[in-house]
Amino acid sequence: MQQLKMLRMDAPVRVRPLPEGYRYEYFTGSTEEIWDWIIICRHGLLPPDAGEDCFKSTILEYPDLVPEKDLFFVVDLNGCRVATSASVCHQNKEGYLHMVAALPGYRGQGIGHAMLSHALCMMEERGCTHAVLTTDDFRLPAIKTYLDAGFRPVLYHDPDSDMRARWDGVIAALGYEPVAYISEI
């Protein structure tokens, strides 16, 4: 079963600051940063035994992703990296939100909204005409954040599932009124 897909057309970004005491830090290539990224992403995006090979395949080998420009962390008051995301601008000017994750103890504080806003602003500055992301059906808090930021569900062919039924289930689980889907079918 393929991941769900969402699309956000060019629209003004609602700037959402990080909660007080947090700051952004961009990836500089250190081994410590690589392992912090792995540890953060092991909480929902990567298998528990993921290692540097996963960072290589997911970040270093991702098309058009320039880690020192695209990959960032959210750092807490103690200097600990607690969340991460990547904001990719493909050569065709399509933005892609990649590998959004936060440590469990830092969820629900508005960090996700702020990271999304930050990533969209980065894409906008680079001239992206729209933004795409993929996610999983069970990531309801993340999907709510994406919907609130103007992303819309995309219906596309998945031979293993009924995309409309999956999206209908997600929207109902969130308690939302039906939303307009974008069809690629």
Short description:
The protein is an alpha+beta fold. The protein contains 6 helices and 8 strands.
Give an overview of the whole structure.
Helices cover 32% and strands 24% of the residues. It is α+β, with helices and mostly antiparallel strands. An 8-stranded mixed beta sheet has the order 2-3-4-5-6-1-7-8, sandwiched between helices. Strand 4 and strand 5 form a beta hairpin. The model has no long low-confidence stretch (mean pLDDT 96).
Low-pLDDT segments: none
Number of strands: 8
Task: Give the percentage of residues in beta strands.
Answer: 15-25%
Query: How large is the radius of gyration?
Result: 16 Å
Order of helices and strands: EEHHHEEEHEHEHE
Strand order of the largest sheet: 2-3-4-5-6-1-7-8
Alpha plus pi helix count: 6
Largest sheet: 8 strands, mixed
Residues in helix, %: 25-40%
For the record, give the distance between the C-alpha atoms at the N and C termini, rounded to a whole number.
16 Å
What's the rounded overall pLDDT mean?
Answer: 96
Class by SSE composition: alpha+beta
Shape summary: globular
Write the layout of secondary structure elements.
Elements: E1 4-9, E2 23-26, H1 31-41, H2 52-60, H3 67-70, E3 71-75, E4 81-89, E5 94-102, H4 111-125, E6 130-135, H5 140-148, E7 152-155, H6 163-174, E8 182-183
Parallel strand pairs: 5-6, 7-8
Antiparallel strand pairs: 1-6, 1-7, 2-3, 3-4, 4-5
